[in-house]
Write a structure and sequence with these properties.
Order of helices and strands: HEEHEEHEEHEH
Shape: elongated
Low-confidence stretches: none
Structural class: alpha+beta
Radius of gyration: 18 Å
Oligomer: single chain
Number of helices: 5
Mean pLDDT: 93
Largest sheet: 4 strands, mixed
Strand content: 15-25%
Number of strands: 7
């Protein structure tokens, strides 16, 4: 019955490059690291790397001399391996890694698909709606 109902609905085509789709807050795009006041939220606990079913995340932590806190020296996500499951986001105790609204990922070489902290850090203001969605649905 669902298929039959869909047949009679009006069809539409989105003219992709000109008309962009704006995903809702519940959309799971590429994972990113949250950055607040030029400091990353991640404390390098490594839970995201342990829970990742595709082994796409690699974290190496160290302690800061000034703040006496842990931080990731190396945080990499292999986007060719990532299956966008959101387990890393669910397990993170600091809300440091979240799924963004980015859905356009293209690579010409395999090395370009390994995202380090330089490509992963995103200011918290840009992720405000996703962070609010997570807090409401936990």
């Amino acid at each position: 019955t669902i298929t039959l109902a869909q047949i009679f609905r009006p069809k539409f085509t989105r003219q992709y490059p000109e008309e962009r789709w704006t995903p809702p807050a519940s959309f799971r795009g590429r994972p990113v690291l949250v950055q607040e006041q030029d400091i990353e939220r991640c404390v390098a606990c490594g839970l995201c790397a342990r829970v990742c079913p595709s082994l796409a995340i690699e974290v190496q932590g160290s302690e800061s001399e000034y703040l006496k806190e842990r931080y990731p020296v190396k945080f990499e996500i292999n986007m060719l391996r990532c299956i966008f499951c959101g387990f890393c986001e669910e397990v993170c105790p600091e809300e440091a890694i979240v799924m963004s609204k980015d859905y356009e990922l293209t690579f010409t070489r395999q090395q370009d698909a390994i995202f380090g902290k330089d490509k992963l850090l995103v200011p918290a203001e840009q992720l405000k709606d996703r962070l609010e969605f997570l807090r409401q649905n936990r």
